[in-house]
Design goal:
There is one protein chain. α9 links the parallel β8 and β9. Helix content is 39%, strand content 14%. Bound molecules: pyridoxal-5'-phosphate. Pyridoxal-5'-phosphate (PLP) binds next to α4.
């Protein structure tokens, strides 16, 4: 496979952009080799600058649940473009999208739009602190909530992949207010809450973690968190930036039937445009400025092009329940077929899957938390990744990430992924 154009672009990029990329995991550091530079994408496929075609299992890290080049989203954007790129003043579309979000995610009574998942989580935590008058937060090892200072403590995703789960530049003053516990361990949470009585403003969790690879909550875990928060006056924040509108119309909370106090959203909510949101109980959301005292603002928040794209994708998902049936079936099929291949090759690698999120962990042990994920053979994953890329399958370039499926994947695409998996693994064994 010729990747010479990507190679020379990467060489040039490093002169002007730190590490040659605008988000670390794109540099392929964890898997070796040079990143490929993408020129275009359509449906389930991406095309690089050298003309190679790949089945896309990243889908822009989640947003492109309907695949690339969706006609309804593109038409909505084209229509909005006719009226100006930005106003910095209220628009009717902002009410429409807010109303739709409150309809799709019933725990959200009011919602504020921002420009990224990071902004959503940072703002949600500030709000919880303002609302409770407390300073500490509790997060889980291996969960990633964006690159806000408070969250770069035992962080997952690219921070874990780069070996910097605790980033330099985060002051000790900030770090001391972030408590951490292992995922899926209710006793650990109870102990921490007990030791920090009346000091914890918020507990923030990915209800289905995707940033240490895909890790599901154990039965009763989310319910247990809800109860601990209720008993201790702690604001429960579900970070559904990844799972929102992906696992169901109402995200992971719709599947596990738990109502958080605040939900953070991103990725799919913008249909590929930079959008995030945080929303929840009216009583808490009314603490946000200008209604309340907790300040949060944004020059481009509620941007008309972004709102048009977001409204188009959300209304499509709201009207098409079959999307979740289809990608859920694709996820199940893939998990089953990949497991069959593993077994036939005598490799019992763990596969975690829920709906359209799936991870193949290069370990034989079950993965319930970050400690489990870290047992993976990441070197082996790197070789596997390169092998899959050469077969035309573009996976997230790190072990600690979830694959994201789109509705554009055909049965042939899924079978190509399985066949490639078999071929690549055979060469690695
Ligand atoms: N929260 C979760 C669960 C995420 O997966 C991410 C990004 O991957 C974020 C927050 C941060 O979102 P963004 O990258 O849009 O800032």
């Amino acid at each position: 496979m010729d990747k010479s154009k990507s190679k020379s672009l990467f060489t040039k990029a490093q002169n002007f952009i730190p590490g040659g990329v605008n988000s670390p995991v794109r540099a392929f550091k964890a898997v070796g080799g040079d990143p490929i530079f993408i020129k275009s994408a359509k449906g389930a496929y991406m095309y690089d600058e050298d003309g190679n075609k790949y089945i896309d299992l990243i889908n822009s890290w989640g947003p492109m649940i309907l695949g690339h080049g969706n006609g309804a989203i593109e038409a909505a954007v084209a229509d909005a473009l006719k009226r100006s790129l930005s106003f910095g003043a209220p628009t009717a579309k902002e009410i429409e999208i807010a109303e739709l979000i409150t309809h799709m995610v019933p725990s959200i009574e009011k919602v504020r739009m921002v420009n990224s998942g990071t902004e959503a989580t940072m703002s949600a935590v500030r709000l919880a602190r303002g609302y409770t008058g407390r300073e500490k937060i509790l997060k889980f090892e291996g969960c990633y909530h964006g690159h806000g200072d408070s969250f770069l403590i035992a962080a997952g995703s690219g921070a874990a992949t780069m070996g910097t789960p605790n980033s330099p530049g985060v002051t000790q003053g900030t770090a001391k207010d972030t408590l951490t516990a292992p995922f899926n361990d209710l006793d650990a949470v109870k102990n921490i809450v007990e030791q920090n009585k009346d000091q914890i403003a918020a507990l923030i969790v990915e209800p289905v973690a995707g940033n240490m690879g895909c890790v599901l909550p154990k039965e009763g875990y989310l319910q247990g968190l809800r109860e601990i928060c209720d008993q201790n006056g702690i604001v429960l924040i579900f970070d559904e930036v990844m799972t929102g509108f992906r696992l169901s119309k109402a995200g992971a909370q719709g599947i596990f039937n738990i109502k958080p106090d605040i939900t953070t959203l991103g990725k799919i909510i913008g249909g590929g445009m930079p959008v995030g949101a945080y929303g929840g109980k009216k009583e808490i959301m009314d603490f946000v400025s200008p209604q309340g005292p907790v300040y949060q603002a944004g020059t481009l928040s509620g941007n008309p092009i972004a709102m048009a794209a977001g409204y188009a994708i959300l209304s499509y998902l709201n009207d098409h329940d079959e999307v979740y049936e289809q990608i859920g079936a694709s996820g199940q099929y893939l998990a089953k077929e990949l497991a069959k291949v593993n077994t036939a090759l005598g490799k019992d690698y763990t596969i975690n899957q829920l709906g359209s999120m799936i991870s193949v962990f290069f370990t034989n042990e079950q993965v319930y938390d970050f400690e489990g994920a870290k047992k993976c053979d990441t070197e082996m994953f790197g070789k596997y990744f390169q092998g899959m890329l050469n077969e035309g399958v573009y996976l997230p370039p790190a072990q600690f990430e979830s694959w994201f499926l789109s509705t554009s994947l055909s049965a042939e695409d899924l079978d190509h992924i399985v066949k490639s998996h078999e071929k690549v693994l055979k060469n690695l064994v």
